[in-house]
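[INFO] parsing input record for Sulfur carrier protein TusA
[DEBUG] input buffer:
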Amino acid sequence: MSLFNTDTPVDGVLDASGLNCPEPVMMLHQHIRDLVPGGLLKVIATDPSTRRDIPKFCVFLDHELVGQAEEAGTYLYWIRKKQD
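[DEBUG] output buffer:
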C-alpha cells in the first residue's frame, strides 16, 4: 500500500463505530454498492477484527484498499470502489 493522504476528499463515509463483526462488513457491502464506480469511501470502525475483514473484503470483491490507519483504538480505511 502506498502512502495515502488522509485529507483526500471522499465520496462517502461509513461510521461503524461501536459495531462488532459482522456488522461493519455488512454495512460496508451496502455502502460500497451505493457508491459511484471509482468513488472513495472512508470507513470508521472500532472492532479490531476489521483489520482482517476489510482487507479481505476488498481483495474478494476487487475494490482497492488505498489507505488504512489506527488512531487510539479507532480503525480508519479508505476504499476505492472498483470500476464497473
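[INFO] The chain has one domain: 12-80.
[INFO] shutting down worker
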